Input
Amino acid sequence: MTAAVETRDLRKHYVQGRGTVKALDGVTLRIEPGEFLAVVGRSGSGKTTLLDCLGLLLAPTDGQVILDGEDASRLGGNARAALRGRKLGFIFQEFNLLPGLTALENVMLPLRYTKVAGVGRAEAAALLDEVGLADRMTHRPSQLSGGEQQRVAIARSLINRPALVLGDEPTGEVDSDTSAQLVGLMRRINRERGVTFVLVTHDHDVASRTDRVIRLQDGRVLSDERVAPEVVSA
Output
């Protein structure tokens, strides 16, 4: 089976003054289709840089990012953007909803940039129903709770039918009960739709509910462990 995403000796270095910061320093990973995993580590460990490289937002200094069998590492900016639009969905810590748009319009926003055959208002409405917001479609972000805003963001991440959804601290702005609900929702979507999820998180409870936890330290993989099945199903 082709991996949803692979990295091969992935490096991202920055020149800072007279020195070099090694944000990623030789990360090799294989993430299978349908996995639900967490990337954890202290601040500065390389978590966000790894997510940005997986999301084709950053070009690596060296190494490869293989997305559904396609080497995306050396693509130009336009080609990366096109591949990103076809294959990837994103969930952000601070929701990143446009305040002047309704929930339905926010879910449909990616379709302005990436056309997906047969996808439009009806599918956006169905996604909002799937995340429990059928009665909030015409509400603007200011009229929604934090948890509801993140549900809109989860629906938006799915509108282009991605193979891989990347979450950058997706529960970081909500309380623990809402966090558990959001993780449960993402887990259900992962199982029912077969979408691969990679979540960067500092929350141990979130990480404990995934299939696999990758721990980074100083830009390298410190550990890569499967989560016990009884914890995942809790």
